[in-house]
């Protein structure tokens, strides 16, 4: 009997050992040596489904694709074979020897880890010139170009950078995303909004291409000498034709991932000439008009007027200082209010800027506002120009007369404007008073008395009606649920609504809103927010399959829309669908 027990225990241990030995979890790479211009595919493969998959930190690579999941089930001779794979596509950031660290997963309550893998990244390798190779075809048919309006501008002269993506007629692009964004060091920069991407026909190196303008940027160089414009890099999914055809004779397409870059560009910025530079020049470059105006030229003492110094035209309007007014000392002057009405397009800044001064005269008399000058560098003639304002006389009609002796208070100048006090600044307390008797005013039986007495009785019916309506509203369970659902949808989608029109910011905010809603409603953590888990929890909450499918579709849209052309109308539709779906889930969730 003891022998049988021992044998049973041994068999049990052996069976559990064999069962555990059958579970595999391993990492595989497409190559262990690659050029910096190549891609690396990493697969994490297991033969039994698990939970809480945690990939390694790809710190030396840029994740350009994935994670993609693939599940395979097969039966061979009555025996089931199962495989699940998480795939990542990586682009190396620099050359060197790197390690793909361990990935972790939990299977049947046990923790499994992959073995680290070493890879070597070399300098760029030449792509094979194979007409049947999808990567080669993509590299030949996709080009990102940065077109610069002028590579030898003057300091503070506007130039434009237009990024165009050229695609050959027999090649398609399904989506793209930006990897590296230029930061434009040593430039003042502003992006020009592109409301909708438009495909146009053009030529690239003499051949017919289609192209789309991805970005327009206006730059004003702030330093002289050689300045670098950093490259814009994109990860693109390309559809290329193959030599294979379907049963109807149509050519089959193949997908390839390609990284394209506009490359670094060097701008040689010329300094402004020193010869003929005016003493009052503060850096204005362009074509400008200048004037000084006042809201009135005659007024009384202690009244106020507005004196405005204004520059209008085209040029670096936001990048220089306006000249200061020089006023007589008897005019009290407050700090100016700076106003800008400037728009920026591919021709640079256009509009007007101004400083508006509030001026208060203290004494009667005539006060000149002397003419002042404004100097700028004219790009058309490549010379300096100076504009002088006209002298303005302020006539103070009524007010106290100045008592300053020989001092000329109408002369301009002085660093500090004096604040002059009136002669009746100090008033004395009267010592003689005339007392008059007042008739006592009794509150009893007054209008206020009767109002205070009757109002509580009048309020009783109102309180009863309000209470009845509240009880009726509280009893309306379905209606309350609808109102609560709508309120919750608006709460979580408020940030997304603010970002409407800005594609990337909108879809990031929308995805975050959907995740936060699920975390608050289903009480799950961010690490558990997989689509399978969401479907499972919503199904348990008796949410209809149609609503669940709609919610998952919106999540997928958020992931894809950031890398594909999207219009304002489509963003508005996605926002409305998200609000409707959140509201519907909250109504159905048990």
TrEMBL record:
Keyword Nucleotide-binding listed? no
Task: Give the residue range of the signal peptide.
Answer: 1-21
Chain segments annotated as transmembrane: 447-466
Q: Known InterPro entries for this protein?
A: BatD
**Swiss-Prot/TrEMBL keywords:** Membrane, Signal, Transmembrane, Transmembrane helix
* UniProt keyword Transmembrane, yes or no: yes
Q: What is this protein called?
A: Oxygen tolerance
């Amino acid at each position: 009997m003891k022998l049988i027990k021992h044998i049973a225990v041994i068999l049990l241990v052996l069976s559990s050992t064999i069962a555990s030995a059958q579970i595999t979890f391993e990492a595989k790479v497409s190559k262990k040596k690659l050029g910096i211009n190549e891609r690396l595919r990493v697969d994490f493969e297991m033969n039994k489904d698990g939970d809480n998959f945690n990939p390694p930190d790809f710190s030396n690579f840029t994740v350009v694709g994935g994670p993609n999941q693939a599940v395979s089930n097969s039966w061979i001779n009555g025996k089931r074979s199962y495989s699940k794979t998480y795939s990542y596509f990586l682009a190396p950031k620099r050359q060197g020897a790197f390690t793909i660290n361990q990935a972790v997963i939990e299977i049947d309550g046990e923790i499994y880890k992959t073995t680290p893998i070493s890879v070597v990244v070399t300098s760029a390798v030449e792509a094979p010139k194979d007409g049947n190779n999808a990567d080669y075809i993509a590299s030949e048919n996709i080009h990102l170009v940065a077109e610069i309006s002028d590579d030898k501008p003057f300091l503070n002269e506007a130039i434009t950078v237009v990024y165009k993506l050229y695609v050959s007629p027999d090649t398609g692009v399904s989506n793209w995303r930006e990897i590296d964004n230029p930061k434009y060091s040593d430039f003042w920069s502003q992006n020009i909004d592109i409301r909708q991407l438009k495909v146009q026909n053009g030529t690239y190196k003499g051949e017919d291409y289609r192209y789309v303008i991805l970005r327009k940027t206006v730059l004003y160089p702030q330093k002289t000498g050689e300045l670098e414009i950093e490259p814009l890099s994109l990860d693109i999914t390309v559809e290329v034709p193959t030599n294979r055809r379907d049963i109807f004779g149509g050519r089959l397409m193949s997908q390839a991932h390609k990284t394209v870059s506009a490359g670094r560009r060097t701008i040689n910025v010329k300094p402004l000439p020193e010869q003929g530079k005016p003493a009052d020049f503060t850096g204005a470059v362009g074509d400008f008009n200048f004037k000084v105006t006042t809201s009135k030229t005659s007024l009384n003492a202690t009244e106020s007027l507005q004196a405005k110094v204004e520059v209008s035209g085209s040029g670096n309007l936001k990048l220089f200082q306006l000249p200061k007014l020089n006023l007589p000392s008897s005019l009290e002057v407050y700090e100016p209010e700076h106003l800008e009405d400037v728009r920026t397009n591919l021709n640079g800044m256009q509009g007007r800027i101004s400083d508006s001064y509030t001026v208060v005269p203290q004494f009667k008399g005539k006060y000149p506002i002397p003419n002042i000058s404004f100097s700028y560098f004219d790009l058309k003639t490549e010379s300096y120009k100076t504009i002088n304002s006209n002298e303005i006389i302020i006539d103070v009609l009524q007010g106290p007369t100045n008592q300053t002796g020989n001092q000329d208070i109408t002369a301009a100048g002085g660093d500090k404007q004096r604040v002059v006090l009136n002669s009746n600044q100090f008033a004395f307390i009267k010592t003689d008073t005339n007392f008059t008797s007042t008739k006592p005013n009794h509150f009893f039986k007054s209008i206020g008395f009767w109002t205070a007495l009757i109002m509580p009785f009048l309020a009783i019916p109102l309180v009863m009606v309000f209470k009845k309506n509240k009880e009726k509203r509280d009893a309306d369970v379905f209606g309350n649920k609808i109102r609560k659902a709508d309120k919750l949808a608006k709460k979580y989608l408020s940030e997304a609504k603010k970002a409407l029109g800005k594609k990337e910011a909108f879809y990031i905010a929308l995805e975050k809103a959907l995740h936060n809603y699920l975390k608050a409603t289903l009480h799950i953590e961010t690490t558990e927010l997989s689509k399978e888990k969401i479907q499972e929890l919503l199904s348990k909450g008796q949410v209809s399959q149609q609503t669940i499918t709609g919610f998952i579709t919106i999540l997928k849209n958020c992931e894809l829309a950031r890398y594909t052309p999207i219009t304002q109308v489509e963003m508005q539709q996605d926002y409305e669908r998200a609000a409707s779906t959140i509201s519907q889930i909250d109504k159905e969730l048990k």
